[in-house]
Amino acid sequence: MSSESWPPPLKEWVARCLGQMTDANRAEAQAELRESIANAFAEKTLWTTDWAGVQLKRCGLSSSQADLMPKAPPVLNTLKRKMNDTPPMSKKAKKAAAQKRNDANLDFGDQAALNRRAERFQREHDIERQKSMRGQASLQANNQNAHLFNRISRSDSPSAFGTNPDDPEADPNVLDWDKYTIVGTNQELFKDYLRLTSEPKPETIRPYSVLQQTLVELKKRWKDKVSYNWICNQFKSLRQDLTVQRIKNEFTVQVYEIHARMALESSDMVEYNQCQATLKNLYDLGIPGKHEEFTAYRILMLLHGRNKSELNLYVGTLTPRQKRDPAVQHALQVQRAISMGNYHALFEMYFNAPNMGAYIMDYFIDRERTRALMTMTKAYRTITVYFIQNELGFESVSDTLKFLGTHGSAFFVNPNALDRDKTVECKSAAPQLAQIYEEKYRKVGIKGAI
Predict the structure, then answer these.
(1) Which InterPro entries match (predicted)?
(2) Which of 64, 87, 169, 354 sits a CA distance of 20 to 30 A from 376?
(3) Are 365 and 350 spatial neighbours (Cβ–Cβ below 8 Å)?
(4) 344-368, pLDDT tens digit by residue?
(5) In the prediction, which pLDDT does 100 show?
(6) DSSP letter at 249?
(7) How far apart are CA 431 and CA 427, in angstroms?
(8) Residues with Cβ within 8 Å of residue 395, at least 6 apart in sequence
(9) H or E stretch covering 150
(10) Are the C-beta atoms of residues 180 and 146 closer than 8 Å to each other?
Protein backbone atom coordinates (compact mmCIF):
# COMPACT_ATOMS: atom_id res chain seq x y z
CA MET A 1 0.00 0.00 0.00
CA SER A 2 2.31 2.72 -1.28
CA SER A 3 1.54 6.29 -0.19
CA GLU A 4 2.05 7.42 -3.79
CA SER A 5 -1.23 5.73 -4.70
CA TRP A 6 -3.22 7.55 -1.97
CA PRO A 7 -5.90 10.06 -2.99
CA PRO A 8 -4.94 13.74 -2.48
CA PRO A 9 -7.45 14.31 0.39
CA LEU A 10 -5.86 11.44 2.32
CA LYS A 11 -2.36 12.86 1.80
CA GLU A 12 -3.49 16.27 3.06
CA TRP A 13 -5.22 14.66 6.06
CA VAL A 14 -2.09 12.71 7.01
CA ALA A 15 0.12 15.80 6.60
CA ARG A 16 -2.12 17.85 8.89
CA CYS A 17 -2.28 15.03 11.40
CA LEU A 18 1.49 14.62 11.50
CA GLY A 19 1.98 18.36 11.86
CA GLN A 20 -0.16 18.43 15.02
CA MET A 21 1.60 15.56 16.80
CA THR A 22 3.83 16.19 19.81
CA ASP A 23 6.49 14.09 21.46
CA ALA A 24 3.98 13.07 24.12
CA ASN A 25 1.32 11.65 21.79
CA ARG A 26 3.34 10.74 18.69
CA ALA A 27 3.54 6.94 19.23
CA GLU A 28 -0.16 6.49 20.04
CA ALA A 29 -1.25 8.92 17.35
CA GLN A 30 0.82 7.19 14.66
CA ALA A 31 -0.65 3.82 15.67
CA GLU A 32 -4.18 5.18 15.31
CA LEU A 33 -3.26 6.82 12.02
CA ARG A 34 -1.94 3.55 10.57
CA GLU A 35 -4.98 1.64 11.81
CA SER A 36 -7.41 4.10 10.18
CA ILE A 37 -5.62 3.95 6.83
CA ALA A 38 -5.31 0.14 6.95
CA ASN A 39 -9.04 -0.24 7.69
CA ALA A 40 -9.96 2.02 4.80
CA PHE A 41 -7.61 0.09 2.51
CA ALA A 42 -9.09 -3.26 3.57
CA GLU A 43 -12.64 -1.94 3.04
CA LYS A 44 -11.61 -0.36 -0.29
CA THR A 45 -12.82 3.09 0.81
CA LEU A 46 -9.60 5.07 0.40
CA TRP A 47 -11.12 7.09 -2.44
CA THR A 48 -14.67 7.38 -1.10
CA THR A 49 -13.98 8.53 2.47
CA ASP A 50 -14.43 12.23 3.32
CA TRP A 51 -11.00 12.54 4.92
CA ALA A 52 -11.50 16.22 5.73
CA GLY A 53 -14.21 15.24 8.20
CA VAL A 54 -12.45 12.23 9.76
CA GLN A 55 -11.34 12.62 13.37
CA LEU A 56 -8.97 10.32 15.26
CA LYS A 57 -9.61 9.20 18.81
CA ARG A 58 -7.70 10.86 21.64
CA CYS A 59 -5.59 7.74 22.28
CA GLY A 60 -5.84 8.30 26.02
CA LEU A 61 -4.50 11.85 25.86
CA SER A 62 -5.46 14.38 28.48
CA SER A 63 -8.37 16.71 27.78
CA SER A 64 -6.02 19.64 27.72
CA GLN A 65 -4.36 18.32 24.58
CA ALA A 66 -5.95 19.33 21.31
CA ASP A 67 -7.50 16.81 18.94
CA LEU A 68 -5.12 15.61 16.31
CA MET A 69 -7.54 15.92 13.43
CA PRO A 70 -10.31 18.22 12.35
CA LYS A 71 -13.70 17.20 13.63
CA ALA A 72 -17.03 17.97 12.05
CA PRO A 73 -17.20 21.01 9.78
CA PRO A 74 -18.40 23.41 12.53
CA VAL A 75 -15.52 22.43 14.78
CA LEU A 76 -13.14 22.67 11.83
CA ASN A 77 -14.37 26.18 11.15
CA THR A 78 -13.86 27.08 14.79
CA LEU A 79 -10.36 25.64 14.65
CA LYS A 80 -9.60 27.64 11.55
CA ARG A 81 -10.80 30.81 13.27
CA LYS A 82 -8.62 30.09 16.28
CA MET A 83 -5.67 29.47 14.03
CA ASN A 84 -6.36 32.76 12.23
CA ASP A 85 -6.49 34.62 15.55
CA THR A 86 -3.07 33.41 16.55
CA PRO A 87 -0.15 35.62 15.62
CA PRO A 88 1.82 34.52 12.58
CA MET A 89 4.76 32.20 13.23
CA SER A 90 8.29 33.42 12.71
CA LYS A 91 10.48 31.97 9.99
CA LYS A 92 12.49 30.08 12.57
CA ALA A 93 9.35 28.58 14.12
CA LYS A 94 7.96 27.61 10.69
CA LYS A 95 11.28 25.94 9.81
CA ALA A 96 11.23 23.99 13.08
CA ALA A 97 7.62 22.87 12.46
CA ALA A 98 8.43 21.78 8.93
CA GLN A 99 11.43 19.80 10.17
CA LYS A 100 9.21 18.16 12.78
CA ARG A 101 6.69 17.11 10.09
CA ASN A 102 9.46 15.68 7.94
CA ASP A 103 10.80 13.67 10.86
CA ALA A 104 7.31 12.40 11.59
CA ASN A 105 6.83 11.40 7.97
CA LEU A 106 10.13 9.50 8.04
CA ASP A 107 9.20 7.78 11.29
CA PHE A 108 5.80 6.77 9.95
CA GLY A 109 7.25 5.60 6.61
CA ASP A 110 10.06 3.64 8.23
CA GLN A 111 7.67 1.93 10.61
CA ALA A 112 5.25 1.04 7.82
CA ALA A 113 8.12 -0.39 5.73
CA LEU A 114 9.29 -2.47 8.68
CA ASN A 115 5.79 -3.78 9.23
CA ARG A 116 5.43 -4.73 5.56
CA ARG A 117 8.82 -6.45 5.59
CA ALA A 118 7.91 -8.41 8.74
CA GLU A 119 4.63 -9.57 7.17
CA ARG A 120 6.41 -10.58 3.96
CA PHE A 121 9.06 -12.55 5.86
CA GLN A 122 6.35 -14.28 7.88
CA ARG A 123 4.49 -15.31 4.69
CA GLU A 124 7.70 -16.61 3.12
CA HIS A 125 8.50 -18.51 6.31
CA ASP A 126 5.06 -20.16 6.28
CA ILE A 127 5.39 -21.12 2.60
CA GLU A 128 8.86 -22.63 3.09
CA ARG A 129 7.66 -24.56 6.12
CA GLN A 130 4.74 -26.05 4.14
CA LYS A 131 7.09 -27.02 1.28
CA SER A 132 9.47 -28.63 3.73
CA MET A 133 6.66 -30.64 5.33
CA ARG A 134 5.40 -31.84 1.93
CA GLY A 135 8.91 -32.72 0.80
CA GLN A 136 9.59 -34.72 3.95
CA ALA A 137 6.31 -36.64 3.54
CA SER A 138 7.07 -37.39 -0.14
CA LEU A 139 10.63 -38.46 0.67
CA GLN A 140 9.39 -40.75 3.41
CA ALA A 141 6.84 -42.38 1.08
CA ASN A 142 9.43 -42.87 -1.67
CA ASN A 143 11.88 -44.40 0.77
CA GLN A 144 9.22 -46.80 2.01
CA ASN A 145 8.29 -47.91 -1.51
CA ALA A 146 11.93 -48.33 -2.50
CA HIS A 147 12.59 -50.34 0.63
CA LEU A 148 9.57 -52.54 0.00
CA PHE A 149 10.08 -53.35 -3.67
CA ASN A 150 13.70 -52.65 -4.63
CA ARG A 151 15.82 -53.27 -1.52
CA ILE A 152 18.88 -55.47 -1.83
CA SER A 153 19.65 -57.41 1.30
CA ARG A 154 23.35 -56.66 1.24
CA SER A 155 22.80 -52.90 0.93
CA ASP A 156 20.75 -52.64 4.13
CA SER A 157 23.84 -51.76 6.17
CA PRO A 158 25.82 -49.29 4.07
CA SER A 159 29.18 -48.04 5.10
CA ALA A 160 29.18 -45.13 7.47
CA PHE A 161 31.56 -43.25 5.19
CA GLY A 162 29.80 -43.76 1.82
CA THR A 163 28.44 -46.43 -0.47
CA ASN A 164 28.55 -50.01 0.68
CA PRO A 165 31.60 -51.64 -1.00
CA ASP A 166 29.55 -54.82 -1.40
CA ASP A 167 27.00 -53.07 -3.66
CA PRO A 168 27.19 -54.22 -7.30
CA GLU A 169 28.61 -51.91 -9.92
CA ALA A 170 26.16 -49.98 -12.09
CA ASP A 171 24.90 -51.96 -15.07
CA PRO A 172 24.91 -49.99 -18.36
CA ASN A 173 21.78 -51.92 -19.40
CA VAL A 174 19.81 -50.29 -16.56
CA LEU A 175 18.65 -46.77 -17.38
CA ASP A 176 17.70 -45.76 -13.82
CA TRP A 177 20.38 -47.50 -11.77
CA ASP A 178 20.61 -46.88 -8.03
CA LYS A 179 21.64 -48.82 -4.93
CA TYR A 180 18.20 -50.46 -4.73
CA THR A 181 18.51 -52.08 -8.16
CA ILE A 182 18.47 -55.85 -7.87
CA VAL A 183 21.16 -57.96 -9.55
CA GLY A 184 20.18 -61.61 -9.81
CA THR A 185 22.43 -64.52 -8.92
CA ASN A 186 20.32 -67.49 -10.10
CA GLN A 187 22.06 -69.56 -12.80
CA GLU A 188 19.13 -71.70 -14.01
CA LEU A 189 18.29 -71.35 -17.70
CA PHE A 190 14.60 -72.20 -17.29
CA LYS A 191 12.43 -71.07 -14.42
CA ASP A 192 8.65 -71.19 -14.07
CA TYR A 193 6.80 -67.92 -13.89
CA LEU A 194 5.39 -67.09 -10.46
CA ARG A 195 3.52 -63.92 -9.69
CA LEU A 196 5.41 -61.86 -7.12
CA THR A 197 3.68 -61.68 -3.74
CA SER A 198 6.66 -60.43 -1.74
CA GLU A 199 9.93 -58.58 -2.15
CA PRO A 200 12.05 -60.16 -4.92
CA LYS A 201 15.31 -61.77 -3.82
CA PRO A 202 18.54 -61.88 -5.87
CA GLU A 203 18.90 -65.65 -5.46
CA THR A 204 15.61 -66.19 -7.32
CA ILE A 205 16.45 -63.82 -10.20
CA ARG A 206 18.67 -64.67 -13.18
CA PRO A 207 21.33 -62.12 -14.14
CA TYR A 208 21.55 -60.52 -17.56
CA SER A 209 24.13 -62.98 -18.96
CA VAL A 210 21.97 -65.99 -18.03
CA LEU A 211 18.85 -64.37 -19.51
CA GLN A 212 20.63 -64.00 -22.84
CA GLN A 213 21.35 -67.73 -22.88
CA THR A 214 17.75 -68.45 -21.89
CA LEU A 215 16.42 -66.59 -24.92
CA VAL A 216 18.66 -68.55 -27.28
CA GLU A 217 17.41 -71.84 -25.84
CA LEU A 218 13.77 -70.74 -25.95
CA LYS A 219 14.03 -69.92 -29.66
CA LYS A 220 15.47 -73.35 -30.30
CA ARG A 221 12.64 -75.00 -28.37
CA TRP A 222 10.07 -73.02 -30.33
CA LYS A 223 11.52 -74.28 -33.61
CA ASP A 224 11.27 -77.80 -32.22
CA LYS A 225 7.49 -77.30 -31.81
CA VAL A 226 7.42 -77.21 -28.04
CA SER A 227 4.09 -76.51 -26.32
CA TYR A 228 3.10 -72.85 -26.45
CA ASN A 229 1.84 -72.96 -22.86
CA TRP A 230 5.32 -73.92 -21.67
CA ILE A 231 7.10 -71.42 -23.90
CA CYS A 232 4.73 -68.64 -22.81
CA ASN A 233 5.37 -69.46 -19.15
CA GLN A 234 9.12 -69.26 -19.72
CA PHE A 235 8.87 -65.96 -21.58
CA LYS A 236 6.79 -64.43 -18.81
CA SER A 237 9.43 -65.52 -16.31
CA LEU A 238 12.12 -64.04 -18.54
CA ARG A 239 10.23 -60.76 -18.80
CA GLN A 240 9.74 -60.67 -15.04
CA ASP A 241 13.48 -61.08 -14.37
CA LEU A 242 14.17 -58.21 -16.76
CA THR A 243 11.58 -56.01 -15.08
CA VAL A 244 12.72 -56.49 -11.47
CA GLN A 245 16.30 -55.76 -12.51
CA ARG A 246 15.21 -52.65 -14.48
CA ILE A 247 16.98 -53.88 -17.62
CA LYS A 248 15.81 -51.82 -20.61
CA ASN A 249 17.90 -52.22 -23.73
CA GLU A 250 17.78 -53.79 -27.20
CA PHE A 251 17.74 -57.26 -25.65
CA THR A 252 14.61 -56.34 -23.68
CA VAL A 253 12.94 -55.13 -26.86
CA GLN A 254 13.93 -58.34 -28.65
CA VAL A 255 12.39 -60.48 -25.88
CA TYR A 256 9.04 -58.67 -26.07
CA GLU A 257 9.00 -58.67 -29.88
CA ILE A 258 9.64 -62.42 -30.09
CA HIS A 259 7.01 -63.22 -27.47
CA ALA A 260 4.50 -60.97 -29.24
CA ARG A 261 5.01 -62.83 -32.52
CA MET A 262 4.65 -66.20 -30.79
CA ALA A 263 1.46 -64.98 -29.13
CA LEU A 264 0.04 -63.87 -32.49
CA GLU A 265 0.85 -67.22 -34.05
CA SER A 266 -0.84 -69.00 -31.14
CA SER A 267 -3.90 -66.69 -31.03
CA ASP A 268 -3.01 -65.46 -27.54
CA MET A 269 -4.25 -61.88 -27.66
CA VAL A 270 -3.82 -61.35 -23.91
CA GLU A 271 -0.04 -61.78 -24.01
CA TYR A 272 0.23 -60.04 -27.36
CA ASN A 273 -1.45 -56.88 -26.07
CA GLN A 274 0.73 -56.87 -22.96
CA CYS A 275 3.87 -57.17 -25.09
CA GLN A 276 2.64 -54.48 -27.49
CA ALA A 277 1.98 -52.04 -24.63
CA THR A 278 5.46 -52.57 -23.16
CA LEU A 279 7.09 -52.26 -26.57
CA LYS A 280 5.45 -48.89 -27.10
CA ASN A 281 7.03 -47.61 -23.88
CA LEU A 282 10.45 -49.04 -24.81
CA TYR A 283 10.29 -47.50 -28.30
CA ASP A 284 9.37 -44.15 -26.74
CA LEU A 285 12.60 -44.33 -24.74
CA GLY A 286 14.49 -44.43 -28.04
CA ILE A 287 15.59 -48.07 -27.77
CA PRO A 288 16.03 -49.58 -31.27
CA GLY A 289 13.83 -52.41 -32.45
CA LYS A 290 11.33 -53.43 -35.13
CA HIS A 291 9.41 -50.23 -34.58
CA GLU A 292 7.79 -50.05 -38.03
CA GLU A 293 6.67 -53.69 -37.95
CA PHE A 294 4.84 -53.23 -34.65
CA THR A 295 3.50 -49.86 -35.75
CA ALA A 296 1.71 -51.70 -38.57
CA TYR A 297 0.42 -54.28 -36.08
CA ARG A 298 -0.93 -51.50 -33.87
CA ILE A 299 -2.84 -49.95 -36.78
CA LEU A 300 -4.39 -53.30 -37.63
CA MET A 301 -5.32 -53.89 -33.97
CA LEU A 302 -7.05 -50.50 -33.84
CA LEU A 303 -8.96 -51.49 -36.99
CA HIS A 304 -9.96 -54.70 -35.26
CA GLY A 305 -11.21 -52.74 -32.25
CA ARG A 306 -13.00 -50.22 -34.51
CA ASN A 307 -11.52 -47.42 -32.44
CA LYS A 308 -11.67 -44.72 -35.09
CA SER A 309 -10.80 -41.75 -32.91
CA GLU A 310 -7.69 -43.34 -31.42
CA LEU A 311 -6.71 -44.70 -34.83
CA ASN A 312 -6.89 -41.25 -36.42
CA LEU A 313 -4.82 -39.75 -33.61
CA TYR A 314 -2.22 -42.50 -33.86
CA VAL A 315 -1.92 -42.25 -37.64
CA GLY A 316 -1.45 -38.51 -37.25
CA THR A 317 1.66 -39.09 -35.13
CA LEU A 318 3.43 -41.29 -37.69
CA THR A 319 6.76 -40.00 -38.97
CA PRO A 320 7.65 -39.84 -42.69
CA ARG A 321 10.07 -42.72 -42.15
CA GLN A 322 7.32 -44.88 -40.67
CA LYS A 323 4.94 -44.06 -43.50
CA ARG A 324 7.54 -45.16 -46.05
CA ASP A 325 7.83 -48.61 -44.47
CA PRO A 326 6.04 -51.31 -46.56
CA ALA A 327 4.32 -52.85 -43.54
CA VAL A 328 2.97 -49.48 -42.37
CA GLN A 329 1.87 -48.61 -45.91
CA HIS A 330 0.00 -51.91 -46.11
CA ALA A 331 -1.78 -51.24 -42.81
CA LEU A 332 -2.78 -47.76 -43.96
CA GLN A 333 -4.13 -49.21 -47.23
CA VAL A 334 -6.21 -51.68 -45.22
CA GLN A 335 -7.58 -48.77 -43.22
CA ARG A 336 -8.51 -46.93 -46.41
CA ALA A 337 -10.17 -49.98 -47.98
CA ILE A 338 -12.30 -50.60 -44.90
CA SER A 339 -13.34 -46.96 -44.57
CA MET A 340 -14.37 -46.83 -48.26
CA GLY A 341 -16.02 -50.26 -48.30
CA ASN A 342 -13.64 -51.49 -51.02
CA TYR A 343 -13.84 -55.18 -50.14
CA HIS A 344 -12.16 -56.28 -53.37
CA ALA A 345 -8.95 -54.38 -52.46
CA LEU A 346 -9.23 -55.42 -48.83
CA PHE A 347 -9.12 -59.16 -49.52
CA GLU A 348 -6.26 -58.77 -51.97
CA MET A 349 -4.25 -57.12 -49.20
CA TYR A 350 -5.30 -59.88 -46.82
CA PHE A 351 -3.48 -62.41 -49.01
CA ASN A 352 -0.41 -60.13 -49.33
CA ALA A 353 0.00 -58.97 -45.72
CA PRO A 354 3.69 -58.57 -44.76
CA ASN A 355 5.24 -60.00 -41.61
CA MET A 356 2.48 -61.35 -39.35
CA GLY A 357 -0.20 -58.83 -40.28
CA ALA A 358 -2.50 -61.56 -41.58
CA TYR A 359 -2.68 -63.07 -38.08
CA ILE A 360 -4.20 -59.85 -36.79
CA MET A 361 -6.48 -59.47 -39.84
CA ASP A 362 -7.83 -62.95 -39.08
CA TYR A 363 -9.59 -61.43 -36.08
CA PHE A 364 -11.73 -59.03 -38.12
CA ILE A 365 -11.76 -60.60 -41.60
CA ASP A 366 -15.05 -62.50 -41.06
CA ARG A 367 -16.70 -59.27 -39.92
CA GLU A 368 -15.55 -57.54 -43.11
CA ARG A 369 -16.66 -60.57 -45.17
CA THR A 370 -20.12 -60.25 -43.69
CA ARG A 371 -20.25 -56.54 -44.53
CA ALA A 372 -19.05 -57.25 -48.07
CA LEU A 373 -21.60 -60.04 -48.57
CA MET A 374 -24.37 -57.72 -47.32
CA THR A 375 -23.37 -55.25 -50.03
CA MET A 376 -23.22 -58.00 -52.69
CA THR A 377 -26.66 -59.39 -51.83
CA LYS A 378 -28.11 -55.90 -52.29
CA ALA A 379 -26.46 -55.50 -55.69
CA TYR A 380 -27.15 -58.98 -57.19
CA ARG A 381 -30.08 -61.32 -57.41
CA THR A 382 -27.96 -64.45 -57.35
CA ILE A 383 -24.27 -65.14 -56.65
CA THR A 384 -22.32 -68.33 -57.23
CA VAL A 385 -20.30 -69.86 -54.44
CA TYR A 386 -17.19 -69.78 -56.63
CA PHE A 387 -17.56 -66.02 -57.11
CA ILE A 388 -17.98 -65.50 -53.36
CA GLN A 389 -14.88 -67.58 -52.69
CA ASN A 390 -12.71 -65.46 -54.98
CA GLU A 391 -14.06 -62.08 -53.92
CA LEU A 392 -14.03 -62.66 -50.16
CA GLY A 393 -10.68 -64.39 -49.93
CA PHE A 394 -11.65 -67.91 -48.92
CA GLU A 395 -9.03 -70.62 -49.36
CA SER A 396 -11.47 -73.29 -50.51
CA VAL A 397 -15.07 -73.93 -51.54
CA SER A 398 -15.71 -75.85 -48.34
CA ASP A 399 -14.63 -72.83 -46.26
CA THR A 400 -17.02 -70.67 -48.28
CA LEU A 401 -19.98 -73.00 -47.72
CA LYS A 402 -19.17 -73.23 -44.01
CA PHE A 403 -19.19 -69.42 -43.75
CA LEU A 404 -22.53 -69.16 -45.57
CA GLY A 405 -24.02 -71.77 -43.26
CA THR A 406 -22.86 -70.11 -40.03
CA HIS A 407 -24.04 -66.69 -41.25
CA GLY A 408 -27.58 -67.74 -42.23
CA SER A 409 -27.14 -67.17 -45.96
CA ALA A 410 -27.13 -70.75 -47.35
CA PHE A 411 -30.18 -70.19 -49.59
CA PHE A 412 -29.44 -71.90 -52.89
CA VAL A 413 -31.54 -71.86 -56.03
CA ASN A 414 -29.84 -75.13 -57.10
CA PRO A 415 -29.05 -77.06 -53.92
CA ASN A 416 -28.27 -80.26 -55.81
CA ALA A 417 -25.52 -78.76 -57.97
CA LEU A 418 -21.80 -79.16 -57.35
CA ASP A 419 -20.51 -77.11 -54.42
CA ARG A 420 -18.63 -74.58 -56.53
CA ASP A 421 -21.63 -74.20 -58.88
CA LYS A 422 -24.24 -73.62 -56.21
CA THR A 423 -25.94 -70.24 -56.46
CA VAL A 424 -27.06 -68.13 -53.49
CA GLU A 425 -30.49 -66.52 -53.70
CA CYS A 426 -29.71 -62.99 -52.49
CA LYS A 427 -33.20 -61.82 -51.54
CA SER A 428 -33.53 -64.52 -48.90
CA ALA A 429 -29.93 -64.23 -47.66
CA ALA A 430 -29.80 -60.42 -47.18
CA PRO A 431 -32.02 -60.09 -44.06
CA GLN A 432 -30.32 -63.03 -42.36
CA LEU A 433 -26.89 -61.51 -42.96
CA ALA A 434 -28.00 -58.19 -41.46
CA GLN A 435 -29.31 -59.91 -38.34
CA ILE A 436 -26.17 -62.00 -37.90
CA TYR A 437 -24.00 -58.90 -38.29
CA GLU A 438 -25.88 -57.03 -35.56
CA GLU A 439 -25.73 -59.97 -33.17
CA LYS A 440 -22.15 -61.06 -33.80
CA TYR A 441 -20.07 -58.10 -34.93
CA ARG A 442 -21.66 -54.88 -33.75
CA LYS A 443 -19.71 -55.01 -30.48
CA VAL A 444 -16.02 -55.90 -30.35
CA GLY A 445 -14.41 -57.56 -27.34
CA ILE A 446 -10.63 -57.76 -27.28
CA LYS A 447 -9.01 -59.92 -24.64
CA GLY A 448 -6.10 -58.31 -22.88
CA ALA A 449 -6.72 -54.92 -24.49
CA ILE A 450 -4.81 -52.10 -22.82
Answers:
(1) PCI_dom, SAC3/GANP/THP3, SAC3/GANP/THP3_conserved
(2) 354
(3) yes
(4) 999 999 999 999 999 999 999 999 9
(5) 59
(6) S
(7) 8
(8) none
(9) none
(10) yes
